[in-house]
Design brief:
Distance between the termini: 56 Å
Largest sheet: 5 strands, antiparallel
Shape: globular
Radius of gyration: 22 Å
Number of helices: 3
Structural class: alpha+beta
Helix content: 10-25%
Order of helices and strands: HHEEEEEEEEEEEEEEH
Mean pLDDT: 87
């Protein structure tokens, strides 16, 4: 009889927990629908002022959504304008997106959500690209080199806190696109972007790696799990006299990579890979090209 009462009690507790969790999911579904409607307005707006005003509403609504219980576990799968990625150690997730302006440039937005059991802990990401004179400097969440991140690679070494390699797409101007290998670390309540962990030719004291190339071209930058490396196209000017003019840069057909050795990113040149490109490569050549018609936003 005692066993029956115990199992009945456990059933009731589990049922109540499941019901509560489902209610939270339903609420977040409603928030996601609202966010999609606002995103639709941003995408279809005819002026920067309207886009930015609607984006302000989007940010406010997103924060409301993240305040809901269990929001860390919610992936916002149908919110296609926002990249939502979690670290494999479940310490945090990053939500990042952009607004393309009338002059062809981009403004980036995002937040880091920490996986806390208590109150919501966010680090808003403030894009200061236009005010960053030295792109190699150490930055923080309030002075951020904006990007739309699509991959997180944790790096752990004995005796020091882990850091995270972020791969990001950074639409730039009417002429060029950028991609970024960013380094994220946490020091108590401080968020840091950038760290001199790169080894190789011309990489001494580099805190991040930024690639720039002709907007019409695509560039591979992702992890190859078979090879255990971060692989990327080697960019070069189309002609020798175009060195430094990145609107004339594209892949020269070869690939380089970074291999994590001893907690550092070691450059490997002219690597040969056996597997083909991933389907996601196309998405990060220019996310805007993959946005569906408004009704599918």
């Amino acid at each position: 009889m005692k066993n029956i009462k115990f199992y009945l009690l456990m059933f009731i507790v589990c049922w109540n927990f499941t019901s509560y969790a489902q209610q939270n999911i339903n609420k977040l579904d409603v928030f996601q629908d609202s966010l999609n409607k606002i995103a639709q307005k941003i995408y279809s707006a005819q002026s920067d002022s309207i886009k930015l005003a609607e984006n302000g509403k989007f940010v406010k609504k997103l924060v409301e959504a993240l305040k809901q219980p269990n929001s860390f576990a919610y992936n916002f799968d149908s919110l296609k304008t926002v990249s939502v990625i979690k670290s494999s150690d479940h310490v945090f997730k990053i939500l990042s997106w952009y607004v393309q302006l009338e002059n062809g440039t981009y403004r980036y937005y995002g937040t880091i959500q920490m996986n806390t059991k208590g109150a919501l802990k966010l680090y808003p990401l403030i894009d200061q690209t236009e005010n960053i004179v030295d792109p190699n400097q150490i930055l923080n969440n309030e002075k951020w080199l904006g990007a739309r991140y699509y991959e997180i690679i944790p790096v752990t070494t004995s005796g020091r806190l882990p850091y995270y390699v972020l791969l990001g797409w950074k639409g730039n101007t009417m002429e060029t696109t950028k991609k970024v290998i960013e380094i994220l670390s946490f020091d108590k309540d401080q968020v840091n972007f950038g760290m001199p962990v790169f080894d190789g030719k011309d990489l001494k004291a580099k805190n991040r790696v930024i690639f720039e190339y002709q907007k019409q071209n695509a560039m591979v930058l992702n992890t190859d799990k078979n090879a255990g490396m971060i692989v990327f196209d080697h960019l070069a000017p189309f002609e020798p006299d175009m060195v430094g003019k990145f609107q004339f840069y594209g892949s020269d057909g070869s690939m380089d990579a970074f291999k994590i050795i001893g907690g550092r990113l070691k450059l490997q040149e002219n690597v040969v890979l056996n597997n083909g490109a991933k389907e996601s490569d196309a998405l990060y050549s220019d996310p805007a090209k993959n946005v569906k018609p408004i009704r599918k936003f």
